[in-house]
Amino acid sequence: MLRCITCQAVHPLRDVIYRCGSCGDLLDVVFPRPSETAAALAATFRARRMSDNPIDRSGVWRFRELLPFYDQESQIVTYPEGNTPLLDAPKSASYAGLRRLRFKHLGFNPTGSFKDYGMVTGVTQARILGMRAVACASTGNTSASLGAYAARAGLLPIVLVPETGVSFAKLSQSLDYGALTLMVRGDFDVAQALLRKLAPRLGIYILNSVNPFRLEGQKTVMIELLEQLGWEAPDRIVVPGGNLGNSSSFGKALRELHDLGLLTKRPRITIVQARGAAPLSEAYEGGHSETLVRVHARTLATAIKIGAPVSWKKAARAVDWSDGWVMSVSEQEIADAKAVIGLDGIGCEPASATTLAAIRRLASEGTDERIDPDETIVAILTGNVLKDPDYTIRYHQSSLFEEFRSETIVTDHGRGLTSQFANPPVVVDATEEALMAVIQKRLDIIG
Length: 447
Ligand code: F0G
Hints:
- By secondary structure, this protein is α/β, with parallel strands linked by helices.
- Among the domains are: 1-30, no CATH class; 86-112 and 214-396, Rossmann fold (3-Layer(aba) Sandwich), CATH 3.40.50.
- The chain has helices at 38-47, 54-57, 90-96, 115-128, 141-153, 168-176, 188-202, 212-228, 245-260, 279-285, 312-321, 331-343, 350-364, 389-396, 400-403, 405-411, 432-446; strands at 2-4, 10-11, 27-29, 86-88, 102-105, 133-137, 156-162, 180-184, 205-206, 236-240, 268-274, 325-329, 377-381.
- The strands form 3 sheets. It has a 6-stranded mixed sheet, sandwiched between helices. Strands 8-7-6-9 form a 4-stranded parallel sheet.
- α4 (115-128) packs across α8, α5 (141-153) runs parallel beside α6 and α9 (245-260) crosses α11.
- The longest helix is centred in the middle third of the chain and has 17 residues, at 212-228.
- Bound molecules: ligand F0G.
- Ligand F0G is lined by residues 113, 138-142, 209, 240-247, 303-304, 349, 351-352, 382-383.
């Protein structure tokens, strides 16, 4: 069934609703605890990796005892997705002043971002409900994922993206997957509000993270991570926050695993927002996490350029349950952290780099939230580096902050910004000597 997070009213699983019919708040998918023991469940999850059935191999459906909302396997959509790596990042660790840091890289998904974990369950539910068309408002990644999964399920994808600020790489995906792609003259928050009104009038199914079936799939990021860690929870999990669906699903997953006995300690969930798009962080820093004041969002990390995050109450619930924290980082910190992650041979998109920027700050600041260098920390990278190549190239050519001055003035209070780790391409004459000279110079630097 579906249960309201505030008034606890319940609704049938098959209702096409996104909010509580009584009080209008967000809904959770709730289900009885599986009858298997924790050890038996863990063994089943692991054994499925050897199976040839695509449903068993999926990094989402492999954990289906914890996603019980469908009746038949034939309803399930899968690419497959998930099974993303946990990567050691020594250069990033040293940049942050830690002994060790690992990244769980969700950009290794079929459409290049974490959204596939939740889209697969959302589109499956759309199929169960007999919907013809699915829709989302998006800063680019949700629309790419929705496009692909709807196409595979034979549903019409409809996506609303802001007319400006969405990366072309992401836009190109939804076009190729045949999505009706609407570039709305307004920002993400405007598009999201419009879709909410439109969807019931047109009979189309919303697959933004307000849809609780999306969040069910995203829970498996945490289940998979804990399995990779031998069910030993880290001290802290750091995740970027935009519309706050991902962090919400992490909290739900950890709570459920805790209730099942698969998790004994509560890892602290630390959510990181970009400073110009940080309504939840502002609420926490101001000491009033029970209210959210929407902001007009500004950041070059366009994936998280969101001022009125729909899932903020669920995210706050996750932070409070785990004794976590919400903070924000500047454009300078994001851009430099992204370049440092790259030096570990791990590309990511700007929103993902908020994590390393935050960890570095928390490890150096003398506040209550201070990170101890011995803490075990997993940072979540949400998108592939190829999702936003313009940003990366502009950073390395030291032109990023000039081209987007209007955004950065707000987010960095007009202070100058520099590409501290710039690695610009070198234009060379097409001769052996010219190439020799440039390469030799670099070889001399490394010694
Ligand atoms: N990282 C990336 C790369 C994202 O695309 C998003 C959100 C987030 C982090 C934030 O996750 O919303 O669950 O807090 N992108 C959405 C989109 C809004 O439309 O693609 P969140």
